[in-house]
Design goal:
The chain is mainly beta and 123 residues long. It is 7% helix and 24% strand. The strands form 2 sheets. Strands 1-6-3-4 form a 4-stranded antiparallel sheet, with no helix packed on it. It is elongated, with a radius of gyration of 17 Å.
Length: 123
């Protein structure tokens, strides 16, 4: 509540490979703004309003992602449990250094080079 957010970041793909975000409360009832966003194939995907309590978002762990800001109109208080609550399951070193590339693990380069490889059908 009160405008909090988490800036765009990514994690090494290994060892986790898949990120998980479990919604612990209800959009529209317990909170009205804020959600997780992703960049997938150069497209921005926002989950705000699409994840209900109990829903789990699974995503490739090295995709750039963030948490969109909550409304500044909703006043933050340490004593008030209102707001978006989620559970995540990381099993990596959260303080590890990011990849040396502009994008995580050089995924954009790998995708472009894969597009240039001719595909052959085998029978």
């Amino acid at each position: 509540m009160g405008g909090s957010f988490f800036g765009r970041h990514w994690h090494p793909l290994n060892p986790q490979k898949v990120g998980t975000i479990l919604a612990l409360n209800q959009y529209g009832k317990d909170y009205t703004s804020g959600g997780t966003g992703y960049v997938i194939n150069d497209h921005i995907i926002e989950t705000e309003g699409f994840q209900d309590m109990g829903d789990i978002i699974l995503f490739r762990y090295d995709l750039p992602h963030w948490v969109s800001p909550s409304s500044f109109a909703d006043r933050f208080s340490w004593e008030d449990p209102a707001g978006r609550w989620v559970a995540i399951l990381p099993y990596y070193d959260p303080w590890g250094a990011p990849a040396d590339k502009d994008e995580p693990q050089g995924w954009k380069t790998h995708i472009q080079s894969a597009k240039n490889v001719p595909s052959t059908a085998t029978v």
